[in-house]
Amino acid sequence: MNESQLLTQIYSKLGRCAPGSTFLARRVGTLCGLDGDANILCAGCGAGATPLQLASEYGCKVTCMERDQEARQPLLEFARSSGVEHLAEQCFVEELDDASFERGRYTTLLLEGALTAMGAPLSQVVEALAPALVAEGLVAMSSFARVGRLSSHQSGALERHFKTRLLTPGEVAESLDAVGFNVFAIEAFDLHALSEHFDPLGELLDGAQGHGPRVLELQQQVELYRSKRAREAVNLILLVAQRR
């Protein structure tokens, strides 16, 4: 088994779900005022836990956009078991530039992990997908943000993981303002509350010694996420903005 196959296997065992998906879905539904008329484009959704829950609870339509082809079957099975297969579409793209959607089709853009999954800054992701939104459409995104100080070692390790300098919540808001969106809600959630996501990840990685630099980096990330110091300095934020 090579390193990529191992990482895919680990991702699969974790259910291809972002940390906090269930809770965040309900916050997104409340803050965005979702109902059966909503049409959501969700980028970086993995197996679709968040968008499919929104479809189930609010009766809205969702398009699940991912780059991981391995997520196709789990997403289909999840949609069937949730009874929302008729409300969900799939879209797989290798790169952000490959995404093409009808203009003004969606009322809401939901970003889960898009900052790293699409390999582009948040503002670039939003700007690229914004044409698919209706006038005054909404963007809801979850991301990790810097809310305190880290040691230089912790900071460097986390920023290598996120492939960019970790922003503060205010800087995230400014980046959206620069591409035509007004932020009207920012909520932060304690990273410690998401520890259940990383503990099984650590257990899966225990037997993965010697599988290459990416696995080693993932092991270091788990230790950082478990670190009290990192939890004090980095939180998961949920941010909602409206197109001007």
Describe this structure in words.
The chain is an alpha/beta fold. The protein is 44% helix and 23% strand. The chain is built from 11 helices and 7 strands. The protein has helices at residues 3-13, 21-32, 49-58, 72-82, 114-117, 122-129, 152-162, 169-177, 195-205, 213-226, 228-233, and strands at residues 39-43, 61-66, 88-92, 106-112, 133-146, 181-189, 234-243. The chain has a 7-stranded mixed beta sheet with strand order 3-2-1-4-5-7-6, with helices on both faces. Strand 1, helix 3 and strand 2 form a beta-alpha-beta unit. Helix 2 (21-32) packs across helix 3 (49-58) and helix 3 packs parallel to helix 4. The termini are far apart. Residues 114-118 have low confidence and may be disordered.
Short description:
The chain has helices spanning 3-13, 21-32, 49-58, 72-82, 114-117, 122-129, 152-162, 169-177, 195-205, 213-226, 228-233, and strands at 39-43, 61-66, 88-92, 106-112, 133-146, 181-189, 234-243. The chain is α/β, with parallel strands linked by helices and 244 residues long.
